[in-house]
Write a structure and sequence with these properties.
The chain has seven helices and no strands. It has 149 residues and is an all-alpha fold.
Amino acid sequence: MTEPTSQPDRTELSQELSRMVAADQQARQKFADSDGPREAFEALDKVHTARMKEIIAEIGWPTNTKVGKDGAFDAWLLVQHADDEAEFHAHCLELMRACEPEEVGLRRIGYLDDRVRAAAGRAQLYGTQFQGGRWQTGAVADRGRRTSG
């Protein structure tokens, strides 16, 4: 009799993702509070992006099953902030689309899809990305989707 296959315990990885997001949010809040230079969180983004590339190479996309719901959210947020990595964004979007929707969250796919489109100068599908440092969405391909989500 064979034992059922189970996911390896990735508690440490989930905790690492949580620490990375805490540092990410702290750096962004510090920038927002002081209107200071972006370099601090941009440098951190580069470090986090490099680590996310390692994680994804090792386990694939970090799904709810692999790293827990919080870990999956944290991984997505860190990838969202990899703004200098258009190819990485597009690769992650493909990986997410290949997963079961409940493992990654359709809303997260929509946010990353819009980010990929906006970075390429294309119209967003959902209007989730704001441009020019202002709370004003860029071009949206389908206005109906923008209002319905």
